[in-house]
Amino acid sequence: MTDKQILEWKNRFAVIGAWFVAILFFFPIFWMVLTSFKTELQAIAIPPLLVFEPTLDNYTLIQERTDYTQYAWSSVVTSLGGTALAMLIAIPSAYAMAFSPTRRTKDILLWMLSTKMLPAVGVLLPIYLLSQKLGLLDTKTVLVVIYALINLPIIMMILFNYFREIPKEILEASRMDGTSTWNEITQIVMPLAWGGIASTALLSVVLCWNEAFWAINLTSSEAGTLAALVASFSSPEGLFWSKLSAVATLACAPIVVFGWLCQKQLVQGLTFGAVK
Asked: N or C end of the chain: which has fewer CB within 10 A?
C-alpha cells in the first residue's frame, strides 16, 4: 500500500470518526425533540417508538400552564446583562494585565480560574442570605451579577490572550502621540481585537443561558429563566417525559439556533483561549 493510499484511508477514518462523534452528540437532542411530540404512554413504551402519530398536546399544555414568553425574556435579559457586565469589567482588566504585566499577573489569572473549581453549592447559602437581605431574591439583577462573576475568569483569560497578540509598538506609538488610556482602549485595542471580543461575548451568552443552578435556587415566578421553567415540570409523582421533553425543547431551541448561526465565532473563541 502506497503512502497516498494510506493517507486516503486515514482521511476516510477521520471522516467516519467525525460523523460518529457528531451523531453521538446530536442524538440526545434528536430524541428529546422526538419525544416531545409523543404522548406519555408512547414516551415510556418499550421498545422505544420511532414511528408514531405526533401530537402538539404537550406544547399546548405548556402554553396554558406557564407564560413561556416571560421565562424566555428573563433568559435573554440575564444572559445579555451578565455578559455586558462581565465584559465591562474584563476588558479594562485584561488590558492592564496584557500591556502592564507584573510578576503576579499569571498567578492572578490562575487564581481566578481556580475559583471555577469551587462547587456552586458551597457558596449557595451565603449568597442566598445576602440576596435576601438586599431584597434581590427572585430578581433579574441578582442573576445578572452572579452570571457576570462566574463567567469573569474565563472571559478574562480569553481576552488576555487576545490582547497579547496586539503588537505593543502600536500602543507605544499612540502613547508618544499623547493618547489617553481611555482612548487607547476604545480606539486602538478594542477595534484591533474586535473579533476576539465578539466571540468571547457570544461564548459568555451561551454560558449564561445554560446556567441552571442559580436560576433555580434564587428565582421563582417573577425572574425565573427557561432553566427554572424546565425544573418546574418535575414533580414528586415522577417525570412526565413527553412534557419535560417539550419544555426542554422550547428552552434549548433559541440558544441552539443562536449557536448554529454563530458557530464559527464560538469555536474561534473556545480554541483561542484553550491553546494559548
From this structure: N
Pairwise CA distance, residues 232 & 216, whole Å: 9
C-alpha dihedral sign at 183, 187, 193, 198: positive
**For residue 191, which amino acid is it?**
P
* Cβ proximity of 146 and 213 under 8 Å: no
Show the cell assigned to 23: 451523531
CA distances from 112 to 41, 210, 248 (A): 49, 21, 32
Indicate left, alpha or beta for 45 from its phi (over 0: left) and psi (-120 to 50: alpha): beta
- Grid cell listed for 28: 440526545
In whole angstroms, what is the distance from residue 245 CA to residue 217 CA? 22
Give how far the C-alpha of residue 201 lies from the chain's centroid of Cα atoms, to the nearest Å: 10
Are the beta carbons of 152 and 146 closer than 8 angstroms?
no
**pTM greater than 0.90:** no
Residue 74: burial class (beta carbons within 10 Å; 0-12, 13-18, 19+): buried
What are the tens digits of pLDDT across the range 251-275? 888 888 887 777 766 666 555 544 4
Q: pLDDT tens for residues 67-86? A: 888 999 999 999 999 999 99
- Residues 160, 90 contacting (CB under 8 angstroms): no
Q: Per this entry, what is the length of the chain?
A: 276
Element (H, E) at 239: strand 238-239
SS3 state at 234:
strand
Query: Which residue type does 126 have?
Result: P
Single-letter amino acid code for the residue at 71: Y
